[in-house]
Amino acid sequence: MGDLTELLREGLPAEAVLTDPDVTGSYGRDMAGFCAAGAPAVVVLPRTVEQVQHVLRTATALRVPVVPQGARTGLSGAANATDGCIVLSLVKMDRILEIDPVERIAVVEPGVVNAVLSRAVAEHGLCYPPDPSSWEQCTIGGNIGTASGGLCCVKYGVTAEYVLGLDVVLADGRLLTTGRRTAKGVAGYDLTRLFVGSEGSLGVVVRAVLALRPAPPAQLALAAEFPSAAAACEAVRQIMARGHAPSLLELMDRTCVQAVNSLAKMGLPETTEALLLAAFDTPDPAPDLAAVAALCTDAGATEVVPAEDAAESDLLLEARRLALPALERLRPATMIDDVCVPRSQLAAMLEGTAAIARAHDLTIGVCAHAGDGNTHPVVCFDPADPDEARRARASFEEIMALGLELGGTITGEHGVGLLKKEWLAREAGPVAMEVQRGIKAVFDPLGLLNPGKVLDVPGDHSIGFPAAT
Amino acid sequence: MGDLTELLREGLPAEAVLTDPDVTGSYGRDMAGFCAAGAPAVVVLPRTVEQVQHVLRTATALRVPVVPQGARTGLSGAANATDGCIVLSLVKMDRILEIDPVERIAVVEPGVVNAVLSRAVAEHGLCYPPDPSSWEQCTIGGNIGTASGGLCCVKYGVTAEYVLGLDVVLADGRLLTTGRRTAKGVAGYDLTRLFVGSEGSLGVVVRAVLALRPAPPAQLALAAEFPSAAAACEAVRQIMARGHAPSLLELMDRTCVQAVNSLAKMGLPETTEALLLAAFDTPDPAPDLAAVAALCTDAGATEVVPAEDAAESDLLLEARRLALPALERLRPATMIDDVCVPRSQLAAMLEGTAAIARAHDLTIGVCAHAGDGNTHPVVCFDPADPDEARRARASFEEIMALGLELGGTITGEHGVGLLKKEWLAREAGPVAMEVQRGIKAVFDPLGLLNPGKVLDVPGDHSIGFPAAT
User: For the FAD-binding PCMH-type domain, which residue ranges apply (chains A, B) (predicted)?
Assistant: First the structure.
């Protein structure tokens, strides 16, 4: 330990190496439930690429595991510390190095906060679409690590679509540059995309070239109330089948709506079983909104309320963004699942989730990026009640099993981390797991980079799949 | 050899195993110049996944290299045979298995021709954007192998954006399934994207889940004539900086324009130094077209001619699509380069290319996906004249060097293959090359899959970098 911090300090300023257990303990975990976290030996806060290289060289020399961290808003335990590890927090590397409206790129350090970047590029008439719910806190490095999504994805896709090139410090401290800063480029294997979503298990991103888009017009939304989840999902099916390209197509179930009203007095319609929000950001959204309103009515909507203007549309979005914090107030703890199914299976997914909630006598609120088939069932429970905690855990897993059964994936945008590691093997199958372990070994032969996350490899410093806590 | 064909025939119908040298010889190469090609031992034309597995198991058992092929319209030699190899042609696996307008996906076999798929999805009101010039011949499997682009990319991106999941037969015959058929998914490392652009060197794609988009309105175009390449590039810069999203933004130099007129009597303006084509496919393209026309005039355009309607717009596109065949008629042979630079360096790229042509006393016509900074300098020469061939080769390489110097990439969309293998190492650098060789070894430890393409690995059956032919 003495050796480790001493060596780290040889290449880092004193204030960038934290060893006080009261302080380092606060870097132990991200926002995932049900995931074990260890006690870091040391937390480092580098400000330069060279400092990150020094950290990784030191880690390799001493065979100490490294856990890279952003803002720790992740929901899969990917940023949780392991006992005795170096926590490598990238939050001090927070400079926007370049915004170029001709190339439509931004070059950023990993610690830049998503919303800070979004506002900075907006001043140039540009937009960085990926908008996870935590966008006011989460960092671009974290977004890249987890391949984050958000509300925008139904029209604009996920983080992977916006990463053109990376500088990555490898486990042994070497600097790898991937990709390009041009609009196109196919020289060699796509190493850039391999790092997106790799949760810090292949290398540490220290710089990113991001693609930007011209800022679209402000979006105009409508809200539609449905007597059943099935009816709302039928509307989603029709909206997508008819070729509409909403900038947002979100669903909240009755539990969500009531929770949001209770938190923020939004006056959402409490008697609806499913509230669908649709928005368009085209120069003239009226024809699309009218067509979508008609499709909602045809599918059984009891009421369709168009927003008067952009400000009212923003309020509807705000209501949707409040769903998670609102549900978190219902019980002492929440488990947020992230199952993405084919759009035509969305109704089955929602109905199945409701059945799981009933079977376990639990409150499970569901909000969904409905246009993507990406549901977030939020299991609300009291961890102090062992039986309720057990039922919560069981329901969480049953929801993933249902997602796979319906042809979906265990994670649409939150990642695997610790939480879903065993499920990844079920989804991917043995051949893909072997290939993934082979790739991990190419980048991290000693198994020092975020060990035990995403997948286990022989010889790694895995902390294993945690029991329910 | 007897062993090889005998073993292959155990799992393939007789008509799927070709050994007549007159026939197999015709499978020797793709459309790249300057690339060596060997004589295949055998050509196989499987129709099922199981047959492909049988071919690869046989190849592994006998340690025979395998060269996967689509329509052989590639421009980098990636599909060229090596002496004694099995050519694995996927063109008979040409079924469209599924088109789903709700999920907005198509599931296809690798031999489906790009244009066939485009027409099939159009019947469902959908669109598969990637549109390489060879779209009437090239296959989806080849498009995936080379990460193809096209005219659409400035708005819709490249093939990588549209591949959601793959079935891949690995070198040892095992079947790997990657990705998903949902709109989103981040479970594990992005193996799907790793295969896109890997030129058959990591595995053989036997099925693909492709993302589709709603078909946009027919595009409306304009043509602008410029007195210099620099003026046209300044217009491109302004168009992109002002946030326009053209569905096409193409440039043809004077050599191209004259060649197209000579081939097809299109009546394009022969005195212009650079012709810029811009198009929009929005519901109301008029405001964008008017703004772009004004930007062109400001940048020095001598004439701006808007197309009257979609039919006239299609004619302009047709002129652009004829550029390559037209240039091919100028001299006995052509070498097509594919350098992509930052948009702000496009003028420097074009001027530098013109200087290279003058220095070597060669005709080099340039067409460019200008909105992407992706230039296609076409070196026209007579291979029967050794000095001219030498100068052609030298100019081709100088163009790549210039592209790298300007911050660009050696290949925007054609791939590395044999042609640019040494240049890949220069662009990517030693760390990236080591990582890429490591990845190759994970998938193909015996070096049997398309050996010598993209990169050389120890122990592979490389045919090396070819001398000028």
Answer: 36-215
